[in-house]
Design brief:
The complex is a heterodimer of chains A (355) and B (93). Chain A contains eight helices and 19 strands. Chain A is α+β, with helices and mostly antiparallel strands. A five-stranded mixed beta sheet of chain B has the order 2-1-5-3-4, covered by helices on one side. Classes of the chains: A alpha+beta (355), B alpha+beta (93). The interface between A and B is large, with 45 and 45 residues.
Amino acid sequence: MTEYRYAIDLLAEDGRPLGRVAVRPDWRAALGWVHFEGIREGTLRPVTSMGPGTVEPIWDGRAGKPYVGAFRAAVGDRGVEVVREIPRRYLRGFAAEAFAGLVEQGVLQPGTPVRYVVVAFPTTERATAHQPDGSGFSVEEVERPLPLTDAPLAAFFGRSVVAEPPEIAGFMPVFVPQRVLDEAVALSRKAADVETGGVLVGTLHRDSGAGAASAPALFVEITAQIPAPYTLSASTKLTFTADTWQAVQAALELRRRDEMMLAWWHFHPDFCRLGECPPERRQRCTGARPFFSAEDVHLHATCFPAAYHTALLISDGLSTGGMTPSLFGWWQGMVVRRGFHVLDGTAPAGAPAGG
Amino acid sequence: MEAATMTLGLRVSDVSGQKTVRASAVPAGFTVSELVSGLIGKMGLARNDVAGRPLNYQARLDREGRHLRGAETVGDSLREGDEIVLTPDIDAG
């Protein structure tokens, strides 16, 4: 198995090289997603931990070595292997950091248009994830079965409507009750000009109505939202504290429904209104549309790292017509906006019922 | 046996419960701060926020339903097989 070291090359618009920065990608999110995809297709056992995975470059079809077009991520378990392609943009955060570094060094001016390529070179260096750290104790991951509950997927489709944007083919269905959305919107209205949020709890289901020919589909049912207490709120920030997590866990235990934390939610106030942007600028402003900030992605990766974890965002904005719910989740190891199904809800104009 | 040479085994989870590890041979003389610092590295949890500032984690002891204080020692506060959950103070933006 060949190991690779990676670097980002920043290029000017005319292709002139501006600088190269060595990077050490963290492949855990990509491999975790591949592992869960293997569970969904019935190839891998439905357990929380995964065996060792590998990532190799797929060379760019035109430029060839050492230019990377995508990555091949593989996860194995008991002699079987699941492989998925991970796009090159998995490393785009490094490209942004490299750009910021060159701006800081005065090599580039802020706003200079640049593009990036990823390069890879074979190395004899081995990954060093488990080097002794001098802490004097060891840890071993505990393998646990994924807590799957059987339920008929068709029945969920039958009593749900599709939220915008429609779910992309291949994504695991997520069902959010209208009641939960209404509660989150009401809490957001109450918070007004500061952020607020909470945790979504529910169940990970396995389709009990699947035929014998295929692996039963997995899907998520959100059952309730637990408002996050002990948070620190500001107009552009919401801090989930250790006390928040403790209170949510206590509420979950009091419910006694074998639910688990499957998602979190938070509210973005109308940043354009707070910033007193002119209405004509708000129509074009990216901050006026649902978005996940770097902090949001970091919180999701730190506290909700499983491929089936999602995040609900309630955004207030003129251009989106008021309070808008949108869902974000993992795809190819990255956090992206995704579709979902509203349980027992009212179909938006033109939206089809069911899945 | 002297406290400094005693060790404990613990079960540790991240905040979502997705990742659980068995920690073996944890020195009883460790403070909770030392234990948490070691666990963050070994469990591959984020050490810093997006601005590079250290994240503050607390260890919640399931048996007592409370957060352990950083200065408490493992030997004084924990028992063999105890379950703790690491919970961060973390920002959404």
